[in-house]
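Throughout this chapter, every protein is written as a compact record of paired, labelled lines. An example of such a record is reproduced below:
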Amino acid sequence: MSGEASAQGTSPRAPRPATQKSSGTVSKKGDRGAKEKPVTVLPQVGEEEPKNPEEYQCTGSLETDFAELCKRSGYTDFPKVVTRPHPHSNFFLSSEKPTLDDQRLSGSCSLNSVESKYVYFRPTVQVELDSEDKSVKEIYIRGWKVEEQILGIFSKCLPPLSQLQAINLWKAGLTEKSLDIFIALLPLCSPTLRKVSLEGNPLPEQSYHKLLSLDSTVVYLSLRNNTIDDHGAQLLGRALSTLHCCNRTLISLNLGFNHIGDEGAGYIANGLRLNRSLLWLSLAHNRIQDKGALKLAEVLRPFELEHRELVERRRLLLAKGAQERSGSMDHEKNQLTGVISVALVDKTEKMQAVKTAKALGKKKEKSGEVVKKEEKLGSGQSPIQGTPKKEDPTKAGKGKVTIPEQKVTKGKGPKMGNKEKRSILLDSELVAEATDMLNPLLEPVEHRDGKVFMAGNKVLLYLNLVRNRITEVGLDGFLTTVQYQAQFLKSKSVSKGPVGLLRLCLAKNCFSLPCPAYTTIQELMLPRDPIGKAKAREEEATVLST
């Protein structure tokens, strides 16, 4: 009995293995319900659902917008926006040895104090603020890789900054793709953004010339320390100018601390042949020798036009002549139309003046001598028959509806013709001026020995070739250029217009001092320096002494 009782007691409690279910499921019906109703997982306490960054509306505060967009993009640890630090005036390097108390204090520093010591090296977005309204003027990113997603965040939070003037990326790990994203970001920013610095960002394809496209708004560009070689210089030279187009916005280009040689310097010189906007160029700390230096010096004085340049010049002259002839024909046509319209208006005025005079005479006769008029007219005529004659001017006016319109257009017709004529002339002048500005090939030239010479680039004001490999041969080429520009400046009657180089830096090259050519160049350039003779002399002496 006890065994039966035990069997009966345990049988309902121990289910068979085939019917054993997991916790939370009782039967097949419950299992079907569990499949139909998915389990909803509630977020943990303190966690929020990720928000879409596209739905965020930027407020114009870079610190707030950048942090919020980073959070919405899934970043948990992201760079902070901080004010750019400046060294204090009382900061100096001390040569004193640390005291015993300082050593004990440094030995007892905690991990938190060590981390706070190196907080300066954490990735940050440094900003330069305006002194008055505290708006962001410049952005500095130094020493950390800017990913494509971060650039996408910048494309949303930078356009609201209305006073942004400069963006500096120093060793930001740019790639070809991120550079394209950065270039696409620039037109979205404020029109005040004019300065771009991409230093320490070498690219294998050296596609920095994309920053100098025809629709680019970059005015100051610095590409130092990017290992740009002759191939990169070739791309940049083509971006400066070609036979059919040229960059018109860039005025400052810094290519210092690169690997540009003679061939690259020749490409840059070719870009300067037809460029009339670049004022400041630095090729310091490169590998330029005499061959490249002579090409740069040649383009700054009268140089011979090549065959393709001569062909393009003739084409431009023909197009300009055809435009002037069409403008003169339109001018003559407008004048002829104006003379004909004036003659027609004068004729209609005379006809109406005669008719009005006759009508007034008839009115006087009717009012003063009605009886005599009736006797003279006889029985066949009556005053009633004279009424149609009285209505003739009105009928004539009704029949010639265009006469009042011509009379009204007397004061406006010829004037409109003159306005049209003036507009046509102004348009032709503007087109001619634009053509002259866009095409330096239309500048005055000089014919010598069957060759055509252009006056050279006199727009470039500053050229830095410090620490290259130029010898006395290259110095002689620059001496010829400086002498020509100095003579041109003396003989120039009008003070307006380009005058040539105002500063030429050639120190620390492969020539020994004293060098007669170098001394003569310094003497000729010193009076032309607008900054100040004394200051220029001190700076040059400092460069030579170091």
The radius of gyration is 43 Å. The CA atoms of residues 475 and 517 lie 6 Å apart.
